[in-house]
Amino acid sequence: MKDIALPTRGAVVNEAEFIAANGSGATAVGEFCRVRGAIASVDSTAPPINFEVGLPTQWNARAIHLMGGGYDGQVVRSTENVPGAPRLQTPLGRGYVAFGSDSGHTSNPPMLEGSFALNDEALENFFGDQLRKTRDVAMKIVEKRYGKLPMRTYSAGGSGGGREALYVADRWPTLYDGVITYYPAWSLTAMLTQFSAISKALAAPGAWSNSSKQALVSTSVIKQCDALDGAVDGIVSRPDACTFLPQTLRCPSGSDEGNTCLSDAQITGFKAYDTPLNLRYQLANGTSSYPGFGVFKSGLITTMGTKAPADPSSFTMPFATFIADSFVRYSIYRDASYPALQFDPNANGYVTQRMQYISSRWDVNPNLEAFAKKGGKVILVHGSSDAYIPNASSRDFYERAVAAMGRSTVQSAMRFFDVPGYGHGEGSFVVNYDGLAALEKWVEEGVPPANPIASDASANGKGRTRPLCEYPKWPKFNANGNVDEAANYSCVE
Question: In this predicted model, what pLDDT tens digit does every residue of 216-229 receive, in sequence order?
Answer without folding.
Answer: 999 999 999 999 99
